[in-house]
Design brief:
CATH class of the largest domain in chain A: Alpha Beta
Shape of chain B: globular
Helix content of chain B: over 70%
Order of helices and strands of chain B: HHHHHHHHHHHHH
Helix content of chain A: 25-40%
Largest sheet of chain A: 8 strands, mixed
Distance between the termini of chain B: 7 Å
Chains: A alpha/beta, B mainly alpha, C alpha+beta
Radius of gyration of chain A: 21 Å
Structural class of chain B: mainly alpha
Number of helices of chain A: 11
Strand order of the largest sheet of chain A: 6-7-8-3-9-10-12-11
CATH superfamily of the largest domain in chain A: P-loop containing nucleotide triphosphate hydrolases
CATH architecture of the largest domain in chain A: 3-Layer(aba) Sandwich
Strand content of chain A: 15-25%
CATH class of one domain in chain B: Mainly Alpha
Largest sheet of chain B: none
Bound molecules: adenosine-5'-triphosphate, magnesium ion
Largest interface: B-C, 54 and 61 residues
CATH topology of one domain in chain B: MetI-like fold
Number of helices of chain B: 13
Number of strands of chain B: 0
Oligomer: heterotrimer
Chain lengths: 343, 323, 568
């Protein structure tokens, strides 16, 4: 049984302009100790998916449907106080922007200790030593003294390490990392990712890693879910997505990956911009930007169906194209790239 | 921290010089001959000449300013009123506590109103309570304090006869000829002024606190606190409010200057002989030493107050303290 | 020896409320039109002794020191607490402005050359509240203190030049012109001075205790020999006036105590408190805007007054509002043009702009309380006589005056009635071919600008409030060539006519009815043929009391008589 099983998750926001369908029927599951990557362009609903699981959306204007079963409990239905006890303890989250995610008026020591003491009735000393340990684990030099420093005295990368330390200090079963490296420079990004991989091995947490950077996915993910305009368009193991992608949108995403794009390759970044989630397009939401779009794409919503053949795989895709055609096209495109890269 | 304090102190000195110089020039270049005012309308030219000399008015402006500053810094003297020859110091000595009572009492009242209402509104935006508060804010901001003062006096004071509407009572007891004195009378006489004062500013502050709290609630670190599993009360109290109060503290510092402006109206409507009353009264009578004295005193107070606020700010915001 | 309207303005200032003088807050009885202004409606009321009056000021007072006090409000206090050699009786006009002996046993004897003035002061006829007797020396003390340069008293400029050895006295030793001989207080003058009696009756000559220290800041504690004395005074804060237990004189003194507990009361609020009875009197609280409703409810002819409880009083000031026409500038240098202006202006209309009963239209230079005012003839109409004005303009043109004439008028900034009046004036002068441009100044700046010799100003929108009812204070001060100074002059029409200068100088030395007759005649003829002014109204003063207070008496020189007040 998966650690977290999300079924038909819908999150709508009431706004002055109308209802934003930020997540519109997404299902996925995360296995113990595994990493699920959620990828997609900006604004496709990745963060909202995570926030909904954590119950962090403002209640005032949010409509939520579906299920998120975590250890036999539906996170979307349980008592807020129950959920609060899970947050930061069994499920932790780290955010996109480390610069602003720490409270500027408290020392990081205070903020780390708070994380411990919110969930465990331990003395300040115990909380303190646990925090110091965690800081050491995320490779912050002089951890003891740095406990008394304020966030503004840390660099961005160091702050993100602190955030990770704070997320892991209670040894959670699931870590949700919403674009943990986007705001950081490339070297720091690599360090942080390495750190997360290593911590996952040491602590055994499962991870949901949100990113729009496929390069990151390649380095860390076991499973991948590709989202487009509030819906999952393709899902599968790391190998499925990287070597046998079947959705034109996934092709496009891979096309924007520098590693794979060679000069003269047919793979190109996807033209156009993602649609508004106030009034999503009919049928396949990608049809406006899809070079393969044909008549059924406009009226009919494609279902996310398992990819035939290798039935053992979880690989699923939502596309009206002939399976045979998709496979051939996928193979050709990727082969071309590989070939060129080998030259 | 030390460097920060030194910087602030130096800045305060620069401000002090700028303010005194500006005030001095502003009021001394107006085309009234102060000597003629002092000597009286019936003065002979010889008398005017004598007074002109006594007042340093026949010297160049920078000598006058130098003399003025020397008197101010050396003898702590702001000169003497043209109108009744009282030392401006003695006038300010009496006026300052009145204004302080108006401003600080008013500030306490307005914060007592504005903080809870502002926070409530921010936590429940668009709720009925919030809407009522926002209408109140609009009314408070639109109503001129003089009008509010007169209305309160007319209704609460005159029609209902609940509170006194005029005059300042000595905190320490009535002096001869005054019909009121002592803490109780003082408090009762200050109530309407405070309310009038607070209506305007609490309106401003409700709005400001509301938006500040709302903004803070959207901050990433508040989300972090929630994600950590902190109960909502802790999130708001410990993580949101302290940060939300930072701009409020800054504003409070800056608004002391503004509040002195508001105090002018309140003092005039309620017959409180504070700095604002004297400033206005002396502008009308061209009693320049009092005008300059009150303006400079008020400026010094504002500078000192801002300094204190800056230091307080440093205490609550580590980013400044440690910079 | 005179306070321009400004000094009242000092007392009356507030945020944009009436500035007196140039603008208007007075009126008075003149031209037989006095009927609607009271002269102290409750004079005949018989009050009972005792009681305390709670009072407040909006603008406060300047000093209680008699050598320095100069606000109208402080003179009211001085009048109640002082004994003078000569005084004005506590009676309405006309008796109220007839000087009579007070501490002196009789009017002074004046030597035939007019240079020696002798007062006889019976010692101990009056006593200070401390028990100290008032003697001839008391008044020598008072005068010497005023004249002491260290005291910096405005009285110096009234009398120093006319008392022998007083001008430039260094404050040491004695002054040759001031002498005490037993019961006699003797003044030696440098020239005959017709106003010396009036000057000796001003509060500057208040009886002061022996050895009162010189104090340029003004003493704040002083014994009094009048019906009342100042029991305590804190500048800018409070004043307590109490009945003088040693007073045996004829002046009224019914109430026990008068407390001014506030010096900074808001005018509107002061009225509210007075209506409520929390306050009994605020002498400078009634504004032009309040005068109509208060008069209707509490004034002369109201139901309250009919029931013997009049609370609102409108009384005449010794004041004249006038347009001073600059005779030194070409625009209005021809007397025919100035006469035409006098015919063209609407005195009644301008007066109405001041507020309810705030003034009484007049064309006289002398306010009605001033001796000679009844001699001065009404010459110009109170409402415009355009045909007469135009006829005069035609004459002027025939004599070489060119139209259009452009005139620059200086008036007061921020006063609605002044703005309205200027609009009226512009309209009225247009048909005469006179184009008006108005320049508005802050009141204090205005008269300073007008007083600079050579000013481009052609008409000054002015007012003048006298210190005592004497024609000298109006004609010599405001219209004599001697009053033209390089700066800070008072002769805003820059009228410098040899014949009139001589006539006025001569009149100044006259006394009694001869003085009144001479000044009245001068005013009539000056106004008729030279017309340096167009006088248009006399102002009134408003007083509003709580229902508790009675016995209001308008003393023409000092205004509302504090000593006369009683508790109903
Ligand atoms: N509280 C909210 N109220 C209204 N709309 C919202 C709210 N939060 C998110 N949205 C909208 O929902 C959509 C999905 O947002 P989300 O933050 O999940 O995107 P994302 O995939 O995380 O993008 P990015 O890569 O830029 O972080 C966006 O159009 C966003 O504007
Ligand atoms: Mg996001």
């Amino acid at each position: 049984m998966p650690l977290l099983d999300v079924k038909d998750l819908k999150t709508y926001f009431r706004t002055d302009d109308g209802i934003v369908h930020a997540v519109d029927g997404v299902s996925f599951s995360v296995e113990k100790g595994k990493t699920l990557a959620i990828v997609g362009e900006s604004g496709c609903g990745k963060s909202v998916t995570c926030m909904t699981i954590m119950g962090l959306n403002a209640k005032r204007n949010t409509i939520t449907e579906g299920q998120a079963i975590f250890k036999d409990r539906d996170l979307l239905k349980i008592d807020p106080d129950e959920l609060r006890k899970i947050r930061g303890n069994e499920i932790s989250m780290i955010f996109q922007d480390p610069m602003t995610s720490l409270n500027p008026v408290y020392t990081i020591g205070a903020q780390l200790r708070e994380a411990v003491q919110l969930h465990e009735n331990v003395s300040k000393q115990v909380a303190n030593s646990r925090s110091v340990e965690m800081l050491k684990a995320v490779a912050i030099p002089r951890a003891e003294t740095r406990m008394d420093d304020y966030p503004h005295q840390f660099s961005g990368g160091m702050r993100q390490r602190v955030m990770i330390a704070m997320a892991l200090v209670n040894n959670p079963d699931l870590l949700i990392a919403d674009e943990p490296t986007t705001a950081l420079d490339v070297t720091t990004q690599a360090q942080i990712l390495k750190l997360m991989n290593q911590l996952q091995r040491d602590f055994g947490s499962a991870i949901i890693l949100v990113t729009h950077d496929l390069g990151v996915v390649a380095e860390t993910a076991d499973d991948v879910m590709v989202m487009y305009a509030a819906k999952a368009v393709e899902k599968g193991g790391y190998e499925d997505i990287f070597y046998r992608p079947e959705h034109p949108y996934t092709w496009g995403l891979l096309g924007s990956l520098p590693r794979l794009v060679a000069e003269g390759a047919d793979l190109k970044p996807i033209p156009g911009t993602p649609p508004s989630l106030l009034q999503p397009p009919s049928g396949c939401r990608f049809h406006l930007r899809c070079t393969y779009a044909f008549s059924p794409c406009v009226p009919d919503v494609p279902e996310l169906l398992p990819v035939g053949g290798e039935s053992a795989s979880d690989h699923a895709v939502a596309c009206h194209l002939e399976p045979e055609f998709r496979r051939r096209e996928s193979h050709d495109l990727l082969h071309e790239v590989m070939a060129e890269q080998q030259v | 921290m030390v460097r920060y304090v030194i910087r602030r102190l130096l800045w305060a000195v620069v401000l002090f010089i700028a303010v005194t110089l500006l005030t001095f020039i502003m009021f001394y270049v107006i085309p009234v001959n102060p000597a003629a005012m002092v000597a009286g309308k019936a003065a002979t030219p010889a008398m005017i000449k004598q007074v002109t000399h006594d007042l340093y008015l026949d010297r160049p402006l920078y000598v006058q300013y130098g003399h003025f500053m020397k008197e101010l810094v050396w003898n702590h003297s702001l000169g003497y009123s043209y109108g009744n020859r009282q030392s401006v110091n003695s006038i300010i000595e009496k006026a300052a506590p009145v204004t302080a009572a108006v401003v600080f009492g008013g500030a306490i009242l307005w914060l007592l109103v504005a903080i809870p209402v502002g926070i409530y509104s921010a936590l429940r935006p668009r709720s009925k309570g919030d809407r009522v508060a926002m209408v109140g804010v609009l009314a408070g901001i639109s109503a001129h304090p003089v009008w509010v003062g007169y209305m309160l006096s007319l209704i609460v004071g005159y029609k209902l006869n609940l509170l006194p509407i005029q005059g300042y009572c000595n905190l320490r007891g009535a002096s001869a000829g005054q019909s009121c004195g002592g803490p109780y009378d003082w408090f009762m006489h200050m109530l309407l002024p405070w309310i009038t004062f607070a209506i305007l500013y609490s309106a401003f502050y409700v709005r400001m606190i509301r938006s500040s709290v709302m903004e803070t609630l959207n901050e990433d670190y508040v989300r972090t606190a929630r994600a950590k599993g902190a109960p909502e009360r802790t999130v708001i109290r410990r993580h949101a409010l302290r940060n939300a109060m930072l701009p409020v503290v800054t504003m409070l510092g800056m608004d002391i200057a503004l509040a002195l402006g508001g105090a002018v109206f309140v003092e005039i409507v309620f017959g409180l002989p504070g700095l604002g009353y004297w400033a206005i009264q002396s502008v009308f009578t061209f009693d320049l030493p009092i005008v300059i004295g009150t303006v400079i005193f008020a400026s010094i107070m504002v500078i000192i107050f801002n300094l204190l606020i800056d230091l307080l700010y440093a205490v609550i915001d580590p980013r400044i303290r440690l910079a | 020896m005179r306070r321009p309207g400004m000094w009242i303005a000092l007392g009356a200032v507030t945020l944009g409320v009436v500035l007196l003088g140039a603008s208007g807050c007075g009126s008075s009885s003149s031209n037989g039109n006095a009927s609607n202004v009271s002269t102290g409606a409750s004079v005949n009321e018989v009050g009972k002794p005792g009681g305390t009056i709670k009072a407040a000021w909006h603008g406060g007072i300047d000093f209680i020191d008699p050598a320095l006090a100069y606000y109208q409000e402080s003179w009211q206090i001085e009048y109640a607490t002082c004994v003078n050699l000569l005084g004005y009786p506590d009676k309405p006009a006309p008796a109220g402005y007839q000087l009579q002996p007070e501490a002196a046993s009789a009017m002074p004897t004046i030597s035939s050359d007019g240079l020696t003035v002798t007062f006889t002061v019976p010692p101990g006829k009056y006593k200070f509240n401390t028990g100290e007797p008032v003697t001839a020396q008391t008044f020598a003390d008072s005068l010497m203190r005023d004249l002491n340069p260290k005291q910096v008293s405005p009285f110096v400029s009234f009398v120093a030049s006319s008392i022998e050895g007083a001008d430039g006295w260094n404050g040491k030793g004695t002054i040759p012109g001031v002498q005490v001989n037993g019961d006699q207080f003797i003044l030696h003058l440098t020239k005959p001075n017709g106003t010396i009696e009036a000057e000796m009756a001003t509060p500057f000559m208040c009886a002061i205790p022996h050895n009162l220290p010189i104090s340029p800041k003004g003493v704040t504690s002083i014994a009094g020999a009048g019906p009342y004395y100042i029991a305590s005074y804190t500048p800018n804060q409070s004043l307590v006036v109490k009945k003088n237990p040693n007073y045996t004189g004829p002046r009224p003194h019914l109430i026990d105590e008068l407390d001014f507990g506030q010096f900074a009361i808001d005018q509107n609020q002061g009225i509210l408190e007075t209506k409520n009875g929390q306050l009994d009197w605020c002498p400078d609280c009634v504004t032009a805007a309040q005068s109509l409703p208060l008069s209707q409810q509490y004034g002369d002819g109201s139901p309250a007054a009919a029931a013997g409880k009049q609370q609102m009083f409108i009384s005449p000031e010794i004041e004249v509002n006038y347009y001073a026409m600059n005779t030194a500038n070409p625009a209005l240098s021809n007397p025919l043009v100035r006469q035409a202006v006098n015919y063209a202006i609407d005195r009644t209309g301008a007066t109405k702009q001041l507020g309810y009963k705030a003034g009484i239209p007049t064309d006289k230079y002398l306010p009605p309380q001033v001796p000679g005012a009844s001699i001065e003839k009404a010459v110009y109409p109170l409402t415009p006589d355009l045909s007469k004005a135009q006829a005069l303009m035609s004459q002027a043109k025939a004599a070489g005056v060119k139209t259009p004439i452009n005139v620059l008028v200086y008036s007061t900034q921020g006063v609605q009635s002044a703005t309205n009046r200027m609009a009226l004036l512009t309209q009225e002068l247009k048909p005469l071919g006179i184009n008006v441009t108005v320049k508005y100044y802050q009141r204090a700046v205005q008269f300073q600008e007008e007083g600079v010799k050579g000013t481009p100003m052609d008409i000054a929108d002015e007012g003048w409030l006298a210190d005592f009812p004497d024609p000298y204070d109006f004609l010599n001060i405001l219209l004599s060539g001697h009053s033209i100074l390089p700066k800070n002059g008072d002769n805003f029409s820059y009228f410098d006519n040899k014949s009139y200068n001589d006539q006025m100088d001569a009149a100044a030395t006259k006394v009694g009815s001869e003085r009144a007759q001479t000044y009245g005649d001068i005013a009539t003829s000056m106004k008729t043929d030279q017309a340096p002014w167009a006088a248009w109204s006399n102002q009134t003063n408003y007083d509003f009391f709580s229902s508790k207070i009675g016995c209001q008496l308008w003393e023409p020189s000092y205004g509302m008589d504090i000593a006369a007040l009683c508790v109903r």
